[in-house]
Every structure is written in C-alpha cells, then in structure tokens.
Please model this.
Amino acid sequence: MYSLTVRDHFMIAHSFRGETFGPAQRLHGATYIVDVTFRREALDADGVVVDIGLAADQLKGVLADLNYRNLDDEPAFAGRNTTTEALAREIFDRLVRAVHGGALGDGARGVASLKVTLRESHVAWGSFEGPV
Amino acid sequence: MYSLTVRDHFMIAHSFRGETFGPAQRLHGATYIVDVTFRREALDADGVVVDIGLAADQLKGVLADLNYRNLDDEPAFAGRNTTTEALAREIFDRLVRAVHGGALGDGARGVASLKVTLRESHVAWGSFEGPV
Amino acid sequence: MYSLTVRDHFMIAHSFRGETFGPAQRLHGATYIVDVTFRREALDADGVVVDIGLAADQLKGVLADLNYRNLDDEPAFAGRNTTTEALAREIFDRLVRAVHGGALGDGARGVASLKVTLRESHVAWGSFEGPV
Amino acid sequence: MYSLTVRDHFMIAHSFRGETFGPAQRLHGATYIVDVTFRREALDADGVVVDIGLAADQLKGVLADLNYRNLDDEPAFAGRNTTTEALAREIFDRLVRAVHGGALGDGARGVASLKVTLRESHVAWGSFEGPV
Amino acid sequence: MYSLTVRDHFMIAHSFRGETFGPAQRLHGATYIVDVTFRREALDADGVVVDIGLAADQLKGVLADLNYRNLDDEPAFAGRNTTTEALAREIFDRLVRAVHGGALGDGARGVASLKVTLRESHVAWGSFEGPV
Amino acid sequence: MYSLTVRDHFMIAHSFRGETFGPAQRLHGATYIVDVTFRREALDADGVVVDIGLAADQLKGVLADLNYRNLDDEPAFAGRNTTTEALAREIFDRLVRAVHGGALGDGARGVASLKVTLRESHVAWGSFEGPV
Model:
C-alpha cells in the first residue's frame, strides 16, 4: 500500500457543551496542524499516489472555509461539538467530495482511503480515516 | 475509524541480557516519550473518542509506577528484557485494564483498540497495538 | 552561559484590530506551545539553573490564567493586540515577577535572563527575551 | 502487533518527467528522512522485534547505495520517476531482500511486514508498506 | 528583544568542490527547511515585529528563485560552494535587501537583525545572523 | 555570525543528590538528544563553519565515553550531580579540547564559540555555551 501525506494548518475559536469538557466549555481556540494521507494500492501513470500540488491546494481550500473563524457561529456545526475528532471527520468528508468531484485530477480517483489527523498541541491529536 | 492520541514521558534505568545488546548489557537508561492512541468506530455522545483529560490522567498514573525507577529491580519485569517493544506492551496491558475497570469513564468502553508507542530517541521507537 | 528550558501550552480565542491582520481580524483562536528558557552564568549548589519542577509548575500557573479564555474579554489586554509577540512579553513579565517573588526558590534569584517563545503553528513562532 | 522503527536519511538529485510535476521537471534534489518500521505478532527470544543495531546498519547500507547521487543517472531507475512514493517502494524491496537473505539475523525472519516512509520536507511525506 | 520566525522550504541539486566533502563532491541534492527570525527592540504600532503575511510572502519569493534548481548552474553561486552555511548567508542578504526596499512594509524598517537557519536533515543545520 | 549544528544522542543511568530532586533521587536514566552548535564570524576556505563529517565523528566519540553507562559510577562525575545542564558543560569542555587539539581539522581553529544542548524529553532541555 502506497501513501502520500501533506500538511497544513488552520486557527479557530470554539467552545464545547458538556460537563466532560470542564474549562473548555468556555470560548477558547486552537491551532490545528492537519496531516492528510492519501492511500492506494498502485501508483498512477506518473508514479504518484496523487498530484501533490493539487492535494496541497485542495487541502488549503477546505481549510480556508474554516480558518480564522468562530466555529460556534458556523451553521455546518450547529448542535455538534467541534472536537478534534469531529473536525477530522468533517475535513475527511469535504476532501472525499473533492476527490469524487475530480478536483484532485482523474488519477486521484484511484485513491482507496484517506486519513485526516489534527494536531491540537504537542501532546494531543485526533484523526479520522476511512475509504474514499 | 476515529482516534485520539495523548503524549507523556518517563525516565528509567535498566540493562539488557543477551549478546545481541552489546554495550546495552551495561546498566544505562532512557527517556521514553509515550504516545497512546485510542481508536473506535463511532464517537460517544459528547463527540469524542475518550475524555482527553481522563486519558491523560490515566496515562500519567500508569507511567508514575515506572518513572524514576531502575527497571532491573522491578518484580513486574523479573526475567524479562525491558526493551522498548516489551515496555510498550506492558503499558498497553495496564491501560486496557484501566479501560475495562472504568477509569476512563463509561464512554471509553466503546474504545475498540489501543496503540502504545515509545520513542527512545529521535531515531528509534517501538510500539504495541491490539484490541481492548 | 547555562540555560534550562521547559515547555507547556495553552489554547485561547482572540481577534486583532488593524487592516494588517486581514482575516485574523475575525474572532479565531490558537494553540500556543510555550518554551521558557532560564539563563545564568553559574549553576546553583544543586547543579541546576533552576528547580525544573518549580519552573514547570510556575509556567503552568501563569498559563492557567490565560488558558481556555477569549483574550478579547480579558482586562489585562484591553486596548492591545494579543499577538504572539505581545503574549510572549506578557508571559515573560509574569514569570519575572514569579522569580522576584521567590516562587521558583531562592536559587532562582541567580537567573540572569529569560526567553519566552510561543509557537502558534509548525511554520510560525514569536518570542521575547530580556534580563530578569 | 509489535513494531520497531529506525530513522536515517539520504540526499539526492533528480528530475521528474510529466507536466504534472511543473517546475520539478527541472533537475533539483531532496533530503529524504527515512523511517523503516518492522512489524510482527510476537517478540523473539531476546524480547525484540528485530536487532535494532542490525536494522540500523542494513538501512544505512541500503541508503548508501542511493546517497549523494543523481538518481537520473542510476540504471535502477531508468524510465521511472523517482517520486517519494516510488523511492519508498524501492527501499522496501531492498530491505525485504535483506530480511530474506538473513542480513538482519535469524530472528528477523519472523518479521511480518515493513513500512518505509520518506519525509521530503516538513509538509510532505510518502510511504510504502507490505508483507515481507 | 522581540522576535518573529516564519518557516518555508526549498529543494535543490548541487555538488561541492574540495576533498573535505568526500562523496558530497558528486552531484546530489537537498531539501532545506528555512527558518527566518526577525528581531527588534520594540513592537510596531500593530503590536508585531513584522507583518507575518508579508514576511512569509517575501521568504517564499526569495526561495522561489532557488527552488527546483541545480545550483551548480546558477551564476549567483559561480566559484563558490553552496554549503548550508553559505546558502543561509545568501538568503539573509536577499531578505535584508527586501527589508531595506520596503517589501516588508514601513514598520519592518525597525527590524534590527535577522537570523536565517537552513535545516538540511534531522541531524544537521546551519545559519547566518547579522544586523539588518 | 555563521553557525553549524550536528545532532546525536546517548543513553545513561544516574541519580541525583538533594531534596530538590524528589523522586529523581532514585536511580533512573535518560536519553539525551545532543545538539552541538559551532559558531564563527567567517567561513573557512571550503565555505564551511567546520567539516561536518569531523564534527559528527568527534561528537560521536565524546558521547561514546558516556553512552550506555551508569554515571553514578564514573570517576569524572564523582561528587557532582549529572544534571542536564552539568552534562552539557562537560560535553562542551570535551569538545573544546577536541577543537584545540586539532581533531576537527585546522580550519576549525577559527571556531569562536560552541553551544551544547541536551534534550531530556519533549518538554525539557538544557544547554551550555561559551567561547572556544
């Protein structure tokens, strides 16, 4: 199995609902360093998993819709806690749509699965992975 | 599949038995940076894999029983080499017991598997992973 | 010159005023990974720059007053942009007061200077350093 | 499942063929930081996945055949793009041969799979993994 | 003293002249991860060392003139070894010109010094620093 | 001012005397990741701060005298706490002797200062720097 990973980041404000979250129920924020891994069984004709330039551009585009925002005000997350794990899933879903829509090129249709990891600090990170 | 990882560390002395280990047969020591990954198929009602505060506390508790010790003197490791891989397994076992015992909360009972990685330097690390 | 550095982190929401900041004028947030370096010419009687346990505790205490907060609502920052550089200075000032007040132990009164670095992402960080 | 990983690096020149690669069609180069993970179900009699000294030596040997070279001139890569993913596969193949040939010791014959990851920068990396 | 650092990278081919360099006399290459630190005594009116967006853009521009190239063919380096240290100096010189030319904004004219660090691997890096 | 840094590591056992050290008074151990920075005003005739191969070899040699040892048994440290800061100083002293003795080549006699940093974990490190 081959993989290719690209990294970017975004910075948001949010708060959590539920006693579990303690002081994180207050409005605070995070920098998320995002690693997206594309996996497939065989390389395409160019010898790559996916065009790394398109992959980086699409990731930047997905993150631009979240960056420098208060996620508590975003309709996409209404009624949900925007935990690291849940954000990883949301970014996964948006990137899967980009792959299906052809935004990563025709070659990328051979991508079998994606993993999205969000690092919230040097001591904690979360991820979601699944088939494309 | 969702995952959440927390990081901590511990510092121990030990020695290895077996010619394979060369100079590491002498009493020496290591800092182990420990990454514990909790994995599950669906998030709990709060939108998390596991309560990150409880996860960090439980990891700290497990490591406190090893930290600042000479593992050659610990009955738990009598007759065994405390290699990076073997220590990863031991920490895995102790954390699985914590999950089963409810120490990570009722929600954590949905955790499907754990991975424990111990980084012994910037150029070497070992891990153990398995179902909970 | 000897130095000792300890690392911790905090997570906040804030916004910036001024066209320079572009989209960062919106309410957003950041994780800051904080490295505090204590410097002195000679070690104390124990052979250390400062008691590392006290240093870590004092840093955690200073960050606890900022952590999980919206800095736009904090009186301490009224009328000021809470940029990475400015926050590094604020944390420096609070730690200098802790050193002067004896919170890091009598030995720490020999500390000559401090440097506080805040990493806001994997591609940007800021710092403030000066005499104690 | 147990794993052990060792890290090393190599530095090469190369160029890519195909419009996909844009400016990377020009002769340029890269430092690749290489992580090789050995995986197996049970530890050997010494309590390790593989002799870490032999693993590091074999990796260094495999990389020595690539290091400080222009890969465009290497017959092994004639007619192929030496992308990060393709190089990960090549190093995987060479290490599998080393395992099968006994170069990592008899114990290493119990290794079930390998993963080779090449980091080409702080924001991009590729890998290949498969059974031994 | 305040500082702000931004990170980027570039990938080049080159060779060295001189027996000191051993196998690095052959045509090979490197990824350089570049950290540029801007330092000044007081923050500007916005509360920053330098506009981080302009700093990142100017660094990207300077690196674009080197990226994906064989430095052995670049007239700017004729008759010189493009060592990590020498490249750090060259990038320093180009950024100082950018500061003097106003490309980082009027506020950046208060920058007192720059440090440019090039990381060539996980185990080696070089830098040049000096007044602006 | 130019600089060049090389990284290596060593693994030791030791214990500390003094109530300040709490549980670290017990025999334990550490991995130290060691960064040595060589600084000088002008590059040598080859365009380098110091021959990076000789620098790495000398560092490895100095660390080999400490590696895989119980520092409590080493006469060189009798009556002293082998804290991170104190070890940084000891390695500094040994490397300065190597520079003066010509072990880093004649060119290295132009090195003005050294900085030795020992990372004991992902959250703590110490250093010593001074003129050569």
User: Anything to note?
Assistant: Strands of chain B lie at 2-14, 28-40, 69-70, 113-121, 124-131. Chain B has a mean pLDDT of 97. Chain B touches chain D through 23 residues (CB under 8 Å). DSSP finds two helices and five strands in chain B.
